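HOLO CASE FILE
Compound: cytidine-5'-triphosphate
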Amino acid sequence: MLEGKRIVLGISGGIAAYKAASICSKLVQAGASVKVVMTESATRFITPLTLQTLSRNPVYLDTFDEFDPAVVAHIDLADHADLVLLAPATANILSKMATGLADDMLSTTLLATTAPIMVAPAMNVHMYAHPAVEHNMELLKRRGVRFIEPGTGLLACGYVGKGRLAEPEDIVAAVVQWFAASRLLEGKRVLVTAGGTVERLDSVRYLTNDSSGKMGFAIAETAARLGAKVTVVAAKTTAAMPAADVELVHVESAEEMLQTVAARYDDADIVIKSAAVADYRPVTRVPGKMKKTNSERLVLELERTTDILQTLGARKKGQFLVGFAAETEQIETYAMDKLQRKNCDLIVANDVTAEGAGFNVDTNIVQVFGAEGRVASWPLLSKHEVAEKLLQLVAERMAAREARE
Ligand code: CTP
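Model generated. Tokens follow.
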């Protein structure tokens, strides 16, 4: 199940470190090549020799242990991984990850890696619930780190509560599932639009909207992680650029976005239009900077832009087309109207007035509509979680469609 997969197993110093032996053994049995990095405290709970024997590889303990003069160990290790699994993760290592501290081999490797990171925390119930730890976990989740929730039960410290390391078989199952998901969109070409368009009045002034591009970039990153070849056509954005390997094309206006997307449409399998596109633009764009006049009023004349999604819907061949609908009322009615009018396969609707949804926040609350009506309604989730659920739904529906054809 994990044949050919290269996993770096990080072990930090909590009593649950002894369970890392079982995790390591199960990963190796499943076919993975496992390299272990331990903190010094972890070695108090379990010996490096145990992990070396189980992983059949040398165990990394000290940043300055350079086994191979041809490479720098922590960089080599960081680059080697398809996945870094940190189990158990103590409050201390989570704090180091959140702040970017690199003072030992494990924290340095975690900082140097561009591979996805999975974390299985284990600690005392009060530590787990501490606002500082919660804050660090939230921050790491937003950066794309995946968490395997600890269990609830009797803890080694004598307390009963949440904080017990997830069972080794559940951790390994999560790893297997993660690798399986990474092939969900293999071979698919995904075209995503993000951000808010800019419609210029003159060379320094423009009409735009509050879209940050966070949702579109989260979709692009997630699609790339699920194995797709991704192009993002981005208008004005304030979100951090997609971390994954995606082609990024910058545009400004609705018209430019239309041309750019239309040129790539025929090659796309999935098109997700999460950009906030202006419905109107100034009729004339004044060259240079517009001078004020003696008049107390200025009337701007605006004209309709082309509806990109509708244009794509009308030209649709086999593409799976997903639109977004930003609504403030009667969500279902308007979303279904957009779905039909724009010939979409799915519409993702959100109430932009709801707290935690819509523009410029890290979370979203959405309902998804298909031809048959509402097909999903998700609670408050991070935009990355929404992206993942949405792409799973798209993959399911495409597979069902392919099976029918
Ligand atoms: N959209 C588009 N081109 C436009 C306007 C909107 O492609 N000129 C797309 C958006 O990217 C989004 C969907 O249409 O995927 C819905 O956008 P929204 O602003 O909610 O809807 P509108 O069609 O503009 O409808 P209304 O203004 O009536 O709410």
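CASE NOTES: Residues 378 and 389 are 9 Å apart (CA to CA). Residues 254, 273, 275, 277, 279, 305, 307-309, 323-326, 338 surround cytidine-5'-triphosphate (CB under 6 Å).
CLOSED: yes
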